[in-house]
Amino acid sequence: MNKLRIPGYHIDIEKAAQLINRKGYKKVMLQIPEGLKTHASKIADIIEKATQATTLISADPCFGACDLLNHEIHSLNMDLIIHIGHLPIPEIKNPGTPTLFINAKSTRPIKNVVEKAMPLLEGKKIGLTTTAQHIHTLNKIKKILLEKNFKPVIGTGDKRIAEKGQILGCNFSTATVIRDKVDSFLFIGSGNFHPLGLMLTTKKTVIAADPYTNTVKKEELKMLKDKILRQRYAAIIQSKEAKQFAILITTKTGQQRIELAYTIKKMLNKQNKKAYILVLDNLSSTKLQGFSQIDCFISTACPRIAIDDHMQYKKPIITPPELEIILGKRTWDEYILDQILSK
Question: Looking at the domain assignment, is residue 2 inside a domain?
């Protein structure tokens, strides 16, 4: 079988081929995140050479393990979905097409960047967190820290979390469970949202170590956190005089919070506010342009949408905890990041 070689990652496509051959699957669908789509044709070629299956590739965006395809591809009669780049969300029991999750494990060395981060760590008790791509490195990182007399702590998350120490953009339970047991957190991974969410959720200092760029961040994260909080405060102030609200829910299996939407609607109605529930698959500003009568959007989908994409919306878009501030049920000093936690 041809091996898949992608710079910086190990993806076990052989595992998928073995399952396809064992089950006799004939039609499979690949679901791949944006950063790996350039390798989609190579993955499909390998599967088709190693099996008797025809491989289709989903061209839609893939935002995470919460973004499953089953309801969209039912009419295509697929035998298997191969979801690449994420770990499963254990709480989600998928009743549709079988889904095989294959993680994209980073092959970047981590020792150097962890050592760079050490002088920035506060205290000796260090909480370790990361994303799916680096989860296999946590024990090695733990050993490196122990050798330098730190006391690393790795938390176990709720039922949406597959592995110890793993955080999602919508769930930081592996960190909150150890928040009172550590002095600061070390996050291994790229991007800003995960370490920023970690800061906002735990109220602790976070040092982010990026194996891809071999850089570490601490003060930059604090400045970004302050910037985001100013943006969120502005959105809350903008929404205080809103009369008509649209509550956004998504059909994505792992992001759908319909009961929360009903609760928010009742809450707004009690305050003599008009509230409408809008249902979408992928939330985007362009899909909402026709709803010109709406003063404010409330997203019950991925918590990152209101934070990362707010500039794309002509009307303010807020999270459920931010609505609580608007309605006087929570103070600004009690600001929390929206999360999708285990039921």
Answer: no
On whether both 169 and 155 belong to a single domain, the answer is yes
Element (H, E) at 325: helix 320-326
How far CA 304 is from CA of 64, 118, 308, 337, in Å, comes to 12, 29, 6, 10
Give yes or no for residue 18 having a pLDDT over 80.
yes
**Residue 134 zone, left/alpha/beta (φ > 0; ψ -120 to 50; rest):** alpha
State the CATH number of the domain containing residue 242. 3.40.50.11860
- 75-108 pLDDT, tens per residue? 899 999 999 999 999 998 776 889 999 999 999 9
CB proximity list for 132: less than 8 A, separation 6 or greater: 85, 86, 87, 103, 104, 162, 163, 166
In a domain, 341, yes or no: no
Q: Which amino acid is at 256?
A: Q
Q: What is the pLDDT of residues 33-85, one digit of tens each?
A: 998 999 999 999 999 999 999 999 999 988 899 988 876 677 899 999 999 99
Q: Are 14 and 101 in the same domain?
A: yes
Q: What is the DSSP letter of 180?
A: G
Same domain, 250 and 169: no
Residue 44: domain span = 9-106
Please enumerate, as own/partner, the contacts of 224-229 that have beta carbons within 8 Å and a separation of 24 or more. Answer: 224/192, 224/196, 225/196, 225/199, 225/200, 228/196, 228/200, 228/307, 229/200, 229/335
pTM: 0.93
The DSSP bridge pattern shows strands 104-106 and 9-11 to be: antiparallel
One domain, residues 115 and 213: yes
Q: Give the number of residues written for the chain.
A: 343
Joined tokens for residue 243: 């009369």
Which amino acid would we find at residue 280?
L
**CA–CA gap between residue 61 and residue 59 (Å, rounded):** 7
Spatial distance between the Cα atoms of 325 and 128, rounded to a whole number of angstroms: 31
E strand or H helix at 330 = none
CATH number at residue 118: 3.40.50.11850
Burial class (CB in 10 A: 0-12, 13-18, 19+), 87: buried
Task: Give the number of domains in the chain.
Answer: 3
Question: Is the separation of the CB atoms in 178 and 153 below 8 Å?
Answer: yes
